[in-house]
Amino acid sequence: MFCDITLKILHADKVVIDLQHDDCKNIIEAESRHSDLVPAKYEGGLKIWECTYDLGRYLLSEKIPLDHKEVLDLGCGAGVIGLLAVLKGSANVHFQDYNAEVIKSITIPNVILNIGDKKRVREQCAFFSGDWESFSELESQKYDIILTSETIYNPDNQQKLYNVFKSKLKKNGMVYVAGKVYYFGVGGGMRQFEELVSSEKKFFTETVWRSEEGSNLQYVVWMFDLTNFIGLEINEFPL
Length: 239
Fold this sequence. Notes:
about 240 residues, alpha/beta, 8-stranded mixed sheet
């Protein structure tokens, strides 16, 4: 539950079982390794990571204006953050995740489950899967707000993530990034990503919220676009 919003979310364990029965090799490999991540194969989209809740609570508690905005939920997984945007009146919300099976088996069902009206889903939402490099090259609309959580854990993918911001954000648009200072075992982290962004001096960054959770300090970072960027293999899922 996020403040005044309660979401209906499919149980991930049941989805995993269904995907295993469908011989989804990426999920089978992840389960055999007892891992949430298999780099370049499965990026953990079936799990709702803790910073997702932090970002959702921040957006609602600070009353970040989402109404009438074009919004991208980048690395959406179960689609929690994008759903908050829909329910808070965003004009259009697009959902993107690395794995097509995540989009088909959990993101789209969650969106339909919470919105209810399939016609409204078709008119207001779009779904994409694929690598961020492909997504940044895709000729599609730009966004007023990009929301992303727990997507900076892998240093090898941080430049791709940043390139999406540059190619998909409207002039004077906002990016909200939620993540930990450091991800043990994988090497990425918020400070490292902030250094990457700051090195080009194209975005202004500001830490707007933080929470102490054990040994991990979780951030939500606000970014403001200072320039007018112009924005393939990727799958779009019609409903």
